[in-house]
Amino acid sequence: MFLRRRPLGRPVIRPAGAPLLRGALVGGAAYAAGRSSARAARREQDQEEAIADLQAQQQSAVAPPPAPTAPQAVAPAPAAPASGGAPSVTDQLVRLGELAQQGLLTPEEFAAAKAELLGV
């Protein structure tokens, strides 16, 4: 309850420049930090925009895959001869055609095998 009083004879002397200098220092540091974070955010946004642009260019540059063509009607291979002999040339050609359609033979391999079967 008792309040201490200052002696009346001595006035409190505060340095005149210290609070002003401290305020300028704190304010300047806060300004620099805000400007730096704004620059970093702007740089990051620019990078994200550049990445999005590149991805859009790549997607537009990539040609869509070719539309699948309707499978050609291939006559089912006739049953193997009952005698258990070698398959006929027709059966072998049908089998080669199936392999080429499945992508197991390149067109060059198919042509070479067909020419061999036909004796050309």
Features:
single chain; 120 residues; mainly alpha
In short:
The protein has helices spanning 18-61, 89-101, 107-118.
Can you walk through the features of this model?
The protein has helices at 18-61, 89-101, 107-118. The protein is mainly α and 120 residues long. 0% of the residues are buried. The mean pLDDT is 77.
- Termini separation (Å)? 123 Å
Number of helices: 3
- What best-fitting shape do the alpha-carbon axes yield? rod-shaped
SSE succession: HHH
- Main β sheet profile: none
Strand count = 0
Radius of gyration: 44 Å
Provide the helix percentage. 55-70%
Helices and strands: which structural class?
mainly alpha
What does the average pLDDT come to? 77
Poorly predicted regions are none
Beta-strand fraction estimate:
under 5%
Summarize the topology.
Layout: H1 18-61, H2 89-101, H3 107-118
Helix pairs in contact: 2-3
